[in-house]
Specification:
- The complex is a heterotrimer of chains A (302), B (293) and C (565).
- By secondary structure, chain A is mostly helical.
- Chain A has two domains: 76 residues, Orthogonal Bundle (Helix Hairpins), CATH 1.10.287; 216 residues, Four Helix Bundle (Hemerythrin (Met), subunit A).
- Chain A is built from ten helices and no strands.
- Chain A is globular and about 75 Å long.
- In chain C, the strands form two sheets. In chain C, strands 1-2 form a two-stranded antiparallel ribbon.
- With 565 residues, chain C is mainly alpha-helical.
- The longest helix of chain C has 37 residues.
- The chains are: A mainly alpha (302), B alpha/beta (293), C mainly alpha (565).
- The interface between B and C is large, with 108 and 108 residues.
């Protein structure tokens, strides 16, 4: 509604917006496109080429649509905030919303930890079960991690990454305190450091650690159980890594907004949301470090 | 819907019952009977317990449901607008609230008094004189008698064969599984591809056939006869077409059957060894439709 | 619970002015770009009706096939111009029926539809907390449904098109390269991802709305029970759906990227999928029923003209059902060989849920007790619900006992159980809510005769469909069979006849809608415009006009202290 005439409450009645619809359509294309990339859909007629295995067009259009939606939608949110629609009560909405979103993300990681723990803890039981004539599988399952898997030394790159993430947690807090005190320069440097540390983490994980892995993702390895270890490892740490990248982008956006002068000592929820997200990513990493890196190592040595 | 086919369905059911009465003397046939409303007759002690337990539960849940129905009918008749124009306004009554919390708890405790012993009986496998392994494949069962060295596949009869042999279509198989009467049988169940489930309702058993794992259950059927069961876990297109037929026969006949299958009569050693690693998988060629990895 | 706004707020009930500038319904942007909770709720309801008709038609194919032994439909011949090849296609239709009814009929109707419409109205809020996000929650559903339908017509595997592995998606059937190697299952997985995102976003929206947007004086303990029920429901969704998302992502990587999470030959564990699935799946069944509980509470109180009995007990019974619902999941897996101790634990935990549920059943009856009951159409559905849900619930208690579940698991006894809770429970609640709020949403009157006829036809029909299935299950009839031995013929035929009655009932429902919206269009008169149900209807939505203004509560109502409780 353009005019809010005699509205006597502080809630934000949002104007009609094309983004949800555009976003949904894009997600449809993205999903179909993903299946086309993975499998291809056999049809006859004009769509044949578009749907052939590996054809990237549909996925691409969907991805562009999603990116446009994100830019347009969140851009609108920022504009609305600047117009003063984010009254104190709306601010609380945003805070609750972010917390709940993070809660659902936590449950998503529960699934990966569940898989990891089930496979790790019950490997002995499974070794007794396995019957399908596969002596290799059985032998492999007698140990966790499986014998031909060379796990990472947790106190090498992973420890470094742990320290990097922990450090980035302090720099983001520094930025927050600076922002609250009106010290724009401090906030800027705090954010720049956080983004840099986040990027460093990503570089170390994907650029240095992963290529050194002594095990494979999926069926590339030849001994079956080895890639099971690899699968759980890469899914759990990989999804975490993806979240680090998302968080880094989120913080970068905040940095740009800070430089554009959009944050005030009183109102900077966009920044706080990014910081919360960053802390969440941090905590997940601590769990990964403790259970996926350190514990198996200790178990192997003990 | 062609009503004509129902006639033939009923006729088939009659045949099933008829086999039970006349086919072989002292031979019972146990499977679904058309129009019946209860559990199949129990063939094992466990199944008897299940039937008893079910009767007990039925005597609990039916009165509860009827009680709720009666209360509903009563309030509708007694407190409808015509009978009671001015509503009362009470919203609390601690006494009844306590009652309808405590009484269900007591009922549930009472149920568990029977539930847990039954569960223990099913899950604690007694020393067995015979071990049989059933392996699910999409879509047929393979049986193996590891101690006797007998392996075979069991396929459902076609409609033509079933009719001509006067045996129930969709239940009868070409090679039934044989067991001696009155013997503790340890049943190992596994699968070569997707999940199946080995079930014989009248024995009170159902065990999932999980690939990569051997599940165990047991039964002891005192009475000779033919007993039918089904695959009871969705396993793809022909999930409906992998029935189970168990022939419970005298020890002598069982021995004859084993010999006729080229097996050896093992000394009745209670198979105490752990099941899984010892029992080699049935050496059968993978069927056309079996998903292989 | 009865909540009445103070006199002060009442004055603004049928406000006019800017807020009533309702955009034209013929402007597509009103719907595509909507940020209005009532419009979005309406779209959800229309979507649910369409999905219900599709899912209902599919169940017609199932009942037709099962009417008698032999293959009637799925025998390679064409039905209505569509070829139904073989038993695989039966499985495809069966799986789609289950998924569509759950994800695209009951959930959109109860949570998206009624939740969107009435949670803001009942707590005295002008809209949802995130009106724009609300719209994407809706529009993701047609996307998910399209993906699911697409999945039915693209290659599934060696046996034909579509995915035929049941709504439970069990691995390794769903990962088998032979049986389901085609793109069909991948589309279905992504469909469920999308439906899940929709529900998660919707859940966040509801929780924030309910926590932050209650009108002054509307404390948590004064919220109507329907709002409570939605609150518990969306918490269940928020915490369980991401786990499902993880599980089906593992299916996706097992299928496409060579992982072996659920593949035994690679050391994986098929049972692990079941654990992950049911960790979501069991809370999900309470997601389907809890909003119904809320609706029934409102209706029973309204038509007994009496406040809800034991309000706090009712609210916390739902909370405890929700909490316990998270720790009973493996009662769906008794036959997988979990081991004695686990089974014993899950038996005990599962049975406990009967206690809070019993509290609800008896509190409804106590609400009616001493009341002045008006047997209007919504009340018929509500009373039908209480009885039929009890019947479905007590068979659940039977199944909870592992000892007897060994015989009944995966038989029609289970099918009967869950249709009594879902097709007779949840769906009756959908209709109860629909008839209760239809005048409020539309400002029109419906024919009580057609509504009553609809109720009685459905009541008789679904009972005829599903009661005999208990007998079939006890006799051992396995579920998910396209064909069965002659020993199951009798009750299957009766069940299929029951479907015919049910279908006539659904037609009467459509006739009712036609009569109401097209043929007669009778407006509520001035006296009954705010509340056609009289003084029993005490929640805030009945203080507004029917239909309510495009934006209500521009001045927030103030909720006065209640005398009772
Ligand atoms: C709306 C959906 C819904 C609801 C509410 C329920 C409610 C319950 N369900 Fe159900 N269930 C399903 C949907 C639902 N279920 C579905 C879809 C499946 C199958 C999934 C699949 O495999 O495809 C299933 C399967 C299922 C199984 C697995 C069966 C099997 O596959 O072998 C079990 C076993 O424990 C079970 C138990 C219960 C119990 C104990 C309740 C309880 O919550 C019921 C409690 C209610 C009452 C008991 C009645 C009222 C109480 C009283 C009047 C008090 C007095 C009563 C007593 C003391 C007994 N359900
Ligand atoms: C909410 C869930 C729901 C509902 C309502 C139904 C409704 C019906 N179901 Fe369904 N069914 C399932 C969920 C449901 N089912 C599930 C989960 C399975 C298991 C699948 C599997 O094994 O994988 C199943 C399986 C299943 C089977 C077993 C198949 C098999 O194992 O081989 C059968 C067979 O008879 C069947 C029949 C029916 C029939 C005749 C109805 C009739 O009641 C249909 C009549 C139509 C309606 C009642 C819908 C009317 C509603 C509307 C028109 C919408 C109204 C909306 C608003 C007012 C907003 N169903
Ligand atoms: Cu094998 Cu179902
Ligand atoms: Cu359950």
């Amino acid at each position: 509604m353009a005019s809010h005439g005699d509205v006597k409450h502080d809630y934000h009645l949002v104007d009609p917006s094309p983004w949800p619809f555009v976003g949904s359509l894009s997600l449809f294309l993205l999903a179909v496109g993903a299946v086309v990339l993975m499998k291809g859909i056999e049809v006859q007629g004009p769509l044949k080429g578009l749907l052939a295995h590996g054809s990237p067009a549909i996925f691409g259009v969907g991805a562009i649509g999603i990116l446009a939606t994100m830019a347009g939608w969140w851009g609108d949110v920022i504009k609305e905030g600047q117009k003063g629609h984010h009254t104190p009560v709306v601010d609380i909405h945003l805070r609750y919303g972010m917390i709940l979103f993070i809660a659902s993300e936590v449950m998503f990681f529960v699934a990966w930890f569940w898989a990891y723990f089930e496979l790790a803890i019950f490997h002995g039981v499974r070794a007794d079960w396995i019957i399908q004539g596969d002596a290799d599988v059985m032998k492999a399952w007698a140990h966790w991690p499986p014998p031909n898997v060379e796990t990472f030394d947790p106190f090498h790159l992973p420890l470094m990454n742990t320290l990097i993430l922990l450090l980035s947690g302090t720099t983001v807090t520094w930025a927050h305190h600076a922002l609250q005190k009106g010290d724009r320069n401090g906030a800027m440097w705090g954010l720049i450091l956080t983004v840099a540390l986040g990027s460093l983490f990503t570089f170390i994980q994907f650029g240095m650690e992963y290529p050194e892995a002594g095990f494979m993702y999926g069926n590339q390895g030849d001994v079956t159980t080895a890639n099971l270890y690899g699968s759980t490892f890469f899914m759990a740490t990989g999804f975490h890594g993806a979240h680090v990248i998302i968080g880094t982008i989120f913080l970068t956006v905040c940095l740009i907004r800070l430089l554009a002068g959009q944050f005030t000592p009183q109102k900077h929820f966009g920044f706080e949301a990014a910081a919360w997200y960053w802390h969440f990513v941090d905590v997940v990493w601590l769990f990964l470090f403790a259970f996926v890196y350190v514990t198996p190592k200790l178990a192997m040595e003990g | 819907m062609k009503i004509g086919r129902i006639g033939s369905a009923v006729a088939q059911a009659l045949i099933l019952t008829a086999i039970g009465c006349g086919f072989a003397v002292a031979q019972t046939v146990t499977g679904p009977v058309d129009g019946q409303i209860g559990l199949q007759p129990a063939a094992t002690e466990v199944a008897e317990d299940i039937v008893k337990f079910h009767t007990l539960l039925l005597w609990i849940i039916t009165p509860i449901t009827l009680f709720v129905l009666a209360l509903l009918l009563y309030v509708v008749l007694r407190y409808n607008r015509a009978a009671n124009p001015t509503p009362r306004k009470f919203t609390h009554n601690v006494a009844v609230e306590v009652v309808w919390t405590v009484v269900p708890v007591l009922i549930l405790v009472f149920i568990s008094l029977f539930s847990f012993p039954l569960l223990f009986k099913q899950e604690q496998i007694p020393p067995a004189q015979l071990t049989i392994k059933a392996t699910g494949n999409a879509w047929r069962w393979d049986y193996s008698y590891p101690d006797q060295g007998v392996d075979f596949a069991s396929l459902p009869l076609s409609e033509k064969d079933a009719t001509s042999q006067n045996r129930p279509f969709r239940m009868a198989v070409d090679e039934p599984m044989y067991v001696p009467a009155g013997v503790n049988v340890r049943m190992l169940v596994t699968s070569n591809d997707v999940i199946h489930a080995f079930s014989v309702p009248s024995f009170g058993i159902k065990e999932d056939a999980m690939p990569g794992k051997v599940n165990e259950t047991w039964f002891n059927v005192p009475k000779e006869g033919t007993y039918y069961g089904f695959c009871q876990e969705l396993c793809g297109t022909y999930h409906g077409f992998m029935p189970i037929e168990v022939r419970v026969v005298s020890q002598a006949e069982f021995d004859r059957w084993i010999t006729s299958k080229g097996g050896e009569l093992a000394a009745a050693t209670p198979a105490a060894a752990p099941a899984a690693p010892e029992t080699a998988p049935a050496e059968t060629p993978a069927p056309a439709g079996a998903p292989g990895r | 619970m009865a909540t009445s706004p103070s006199a002060h707020a009442g004055e603004h009930a049928d406000e006019h002015g800017h807020a009533d500038h309702r955009p034209s319904p013929y402007d597509p942007r009103r719907w595509l770009f909507s940020t209005n909770h009532k419009d979005i709720g309406t779209m959800y309801l229309i979507f649910a009706i369409i999905a219900g008709l599709v899912g209902g038609a599919m169940s017609g194919l199932l009942r037709w096939e099962l009417a008698e032994p032999g293959l009637q439909v799925f025998n390679g011949q064409s039905v209505l111009g569509i070829v139904f090849g073989n038993e695989h296609n039966y499985n495809v239709i069966m799986s789609a029926h289950g998924l569509i009814m759950i994800f695209f009929m009951v959930m959109p109707a109860l949570i998206g539809g009624f939740g969107n419409w009435f949670v803001p109205l009942m707590i005295g809020a002008p809209d949802m907390a995130f009106p724009r996000m609300n719209n994407i929650s809706f529009w993701l559903l047609p996307v998910a449904l399209s993906l699911a339908v697409l999945s039915m017509i693209v290659p599934g595997g060696s046996m034909g098109t579509g995915f035929g592995g049941g709504w439970t998606l069990y691995a390794p059937l769903s990962t088998s390269p032979q049986l389901h190697g085609g793109p069909s299952m991948d589309l279905l997985i992504l469909s469920i991802h999308v439906a899940g995102i929709s529900s998660i976003l919707g859940s966040i929206n509801f929780i924030v709305t309910i926590f932050n947007m209650r009108a002054p004086g509307m404390t948590l303990h004064r919220m109507p029970l329907f709002v409570w029920s939605i609150l518990v429901t969306v918490w269940l969704l928020l915490l369980s759906l991401p786990v499902l998302a993880g599980a089906i992502t593992m299916l996706l990587t097992d299928r496409n990227f060579g992982t072996n999470f659920f593949n035994a030959a690679g050391g994986g564990d098929p049972a692990m999928f079941q654990h992950l699935f049911w960790f979501f799946g069991h809370p999900e069944v309470y997601v389907l029923i809890l909003p119904g509980f809320g609706i029934i509470s409102q209706i029973v109180s309204t038509f007994s003209r009496k406040p809800v009995f034991g309000y706090l007990g009712m609210a916390y019974a739902m909370v405890s059902i929700g909490v316990i619902g998270f720790i009973v999941w493996a009662h769906h897996m008794y036959t997988t060989g979990m081991g004695l101790e686990l089974e014993a634990y899950f038996v005990a935990a599962t049975m406990i849920i009967a206690v809070p549920t019993g509290i609800k059943i008896f509190s409804w009856i106590a609400t009616m007790w001493g009341g002045s009951i008006d047997l209007k159409v919504p009340m018929l559905w509500a009373i039908g619900f209480i009885f039929l849900f009890t019947l479905g619930g007590v068979t659940g208690v039977v199944l909870a006992n592992s000892g007897i579940d060994t015989v009944l698991h995966d038989t029609y006894y289970v099918v009967a159980h869950f249709h009594y809770t879902m097709s007779l429970g949840a769906t009756f609640a959908v209709f109860a809510g629909f008839y209760y709020w239809l005048p409020k949403m539309s400002g029109l009157k419906y024919s009580g005769f057609l509504g009553g006829l609809h109720f009685w036809l459905m009541f008789v029909g679904v009972n005829a469909v599903f009661f005999p299935q208990h007998f079939l299950g006890l006799q051992g009839m396995p579920r998910r069979y396209a064909d069965y031995p002659a020993g199951f013929a009798h009750w299957n035929l009766i069940s299929s006849y029951g479907y015919v009655i049910t279908a006539v009932g659904v037609l009467v429902f459509l006739a009712m809608l036609l009569d109401m919206f097209v043929l007669r269009r009778r407006k509520l008169n001035a006296a009954e415009n705010a509340s056609p149900w009289g003084e029993g209807a005490t929640t805030l939505e009945w203080t507004l006009s029917s239909p309510p203004p495009f934006h209500q509560f521009s001045e927030l109502p103030v909720i006065a202290e209640e005398k009772h409780h």
